[in-house]
TrEMBL record, chain A:
It comes from Nocardioides marmoriginsengisoli. Pfam families: OTCace, OTCace_N. Heterododecamer (2C3:3R2) of six catalytic PyrB chains organized as two trimers (C3), and six regulatory PyrI chains organized as three dimers (R2). Belongs to the aspartate/ornithine carbamoyltransferase superfamily. ATCase family. The gene is pyrB. L-aspartate binds at residues 82, 171, 225. This is Aspartate carbamoyltransferase.
TrEMBL record, chain B:
InterPro entries: DHOase, DHOase/Allantoinase_Hydrolase, DHOase_cat, Dihydroorotase_CS, Metal-dep_hydrolase_composite, Metal_Hydrolase. This is Dihydroorotase. GO terms for cellular component: cytoplasm. The lineage of its organism: Bacteria, Bacillati, Actinomycetota, Actinomycetes, Propionibacteriales. CDD domains: DHOase_IIa. It comes from Nocardioides marmoriginsengisoli. The keyword NAD does not apply. Zn(2+) 2 binds at residues 150, 177, 230. Pathway: Pyrimidine metabolism; UMP biosynthesis via de novo pathway; (S)-dihydroorotate from bicarbonate: step 3/3. Substrate binds at residues 58-60, 90, 276, 307, 321-322. Residues 47-234 form the Dihydroorotase catalytic domain. Its EC number is 3.5.2.3. Binds 2 Zn(2+) ions per subunit. Gene3D superfamilies: Metal-dependent hydrolases, Urease, subunit C, domain 1. Catalyzes the reversible cyclization of carbamoyl aspartate to dihydroorotate.
Amino acid sequence: MKHLLSAGDLTRDDAELILATAGEMRALADRPIKKLPALRGRTVVNLFFEDSTRTRMSFEAAAKRLSADVINFSAKGSSVSKGESLKDTALTLEAMGADAVVVRHWASGAPHSLANAGWSRSTVINAGDGTHEHPTQALLDAFTMTRHLASDGGGLDGRRIAIVGDVLHSRVARSNALLLQTLGAEVTLVSPPTLLPYGVGTWGVETSYDLDSVLPKADAVMMLRVQRERMNDSYFPSVREYSRRYGLNARRMATLQDHTIVMHPGPMIRGMEITADVADSDRSVIVEQVTNGVAVRMAVLYLLLGGSEPAIGADETPTTEETPA
Amino acid sequence: MTSYLLSGARILGAEPTDILIADGVVSAIGTGLTADGAEVVDATGLIALPGLVDLHTHLREPGREDAETVESGTQAAALGGFTAVHAMANTDPVADTAGVVEQVHRLGREAGHCDVYPVGAVTVGLAGEQLAELGAMADSAARVRVFSDDGKCVADPVLMRRALEYVKAFDGVIAQHAQEPRLTEDAQMNEGELSGRLGLRGWPAVAEEAIIARDCLLTAHVGSRLHVCHVSTAGSVEIVRWAKSKGWNVTAEVCPHHLLLTDELAATYDPIYKVNPPLRSAADVEAVRAGLADGTLDIVATDHAPHPHEDKDCEWQAAAFGMLGLETALSIVQQTMVDSGLIDWEGVAERLSYAPARIGRVGDHGRPIAVGEPANIVLYDADATRVIEAGAMASLSRNTPYAGRELPGRVVATFLRGRPTVLDGKLA
């Protein structure tokens, strides 16, 4: 695999390899020296056409821990009408010798264009495109779920995952729906009807308008952010009504099974889709998701750029039998 | 003026015959014709069609001469077998005054590759707020009869009613780009299963159908004439069929790309397939083909929409809507309608020549190939095949969705009032 554009492009073997590699990378975080030489001399460009401090920092930390050189290129607001085109930006990065381009873009499909339009030979990693996909977020979510729900060494087969909120505009929901199905989990999208995409019936996932009926069966509950600009566009009558019907609060949390975890891709709007007491509860793995994000992105960068050699030498790792060949 | 003897041509696909053209008209038809001094064009095996008439062309001049000019666009038209095109009003400045339409008309005459009939804007600046001077454009040297805000919908129902009423004074027609604006804000592709997956904002069929239904009712109410541009959905075909069953004066067009291509192509995120209205589902393609076959949809119109390379070599959402059409239209119609057995060559003449000329009130075009008629004739080799090369087109732009595809048929010659604009497949 040369690029990571869509979670749907990953086979189960691909996804499991990334998650296993991320497990090794995650173990590295507990060591005194958190750096590997794997990508020494390679250049990773973070190309962000849209603000996302946390995703950019996560990719930057991941690349630096693999010893890659990192260039951050913020092109916010750039478009054909406003300035340099994506094509010219790509040609510039190509000329600078970028080995990988991590791209965040407001336009759905922009990473596909970057990878396929013939502008560049770099590896392209989709760090979120429009309302399309955010595959590394789905991978870090799956990684986090695996650590909590499959600690016996099994996978996510048969696990029930509820994804709640603005599915229509969520790249996180799209990538998760694809990846979690690949990994054998059962996904239920919970949303007011106005915020479910047209044609969602063909996605192979369950859908529900009723959060209360879904929560008791869920093994993980992923709350999605509702963007402020949606709030005045009649997707729902008011923030209060949304919170009442689709917000996760202490009363609803009490209906969860004991092992069920609460997730959120961030940034949260406390009091809207999730109350502060839920976000800060023991069930919440929201902060851990951030830590895991770095490990998963290290795994993705390593596997796409590093070739077939294991990231961590067999003599260094305690989990030799799981080390990918 | 040189006379031409087209030998062995099959008029509308009938048995071979000779056609003699002199002084701009068809002077004789029959086997074994001879004429001293006439230049003989070997038309053996070629189909003779009346010169094609496009009711929906974007020539981009004035304003976007980087995308197309009247000269280059009419060259493309002639190579596609057209002898008349209607030039849409969304130029810069907009064709909303007598001055602009006369300029476009004059540029067409000077270019000489085909006749150019300017379409007048319905509203000033296509802004949808007040009527443009429709009467002045009708009375100008350009004799405008077709009015359209194409690219934008006349969404205000009162304004649409007034426009329909007003053009009755000079036998005009309102050609509506049916797109409910609120339902299509920032819309990128057909709203369907795929738009949800691709994260591209959907352009739902209902946004087209609701406007068509409203406009048909308005047209009936005020007793005027409506033409529906680029019908793309099965539901729209049903509504037009219903309006016609009532006897209302409604006509409709379909574009070649909506006869062939589907929204599946958007999965490439290649903006060459971005067009408005968008490519629809396979079921919609079947429905518009059936509608064109049974006469519900009266004509094929190209919606030839040139765009410079940079407006297509970019992200899908940043790209312009539209695709080239003039040089491939007849081949697409052959592939989708004739080779599939839905219509014959007489049906092609009706839908690409006679009917569009009637709707546009263009007297000298859309006439049968008969003695005494204006010699506007296309010679077409339906047995040829060709691979489309974007770079080989006469259009200044390259945004054809058919690049690399093999299409049937090839225009061999085009005659405009007895004068060849295309011979041997090349500009004469």
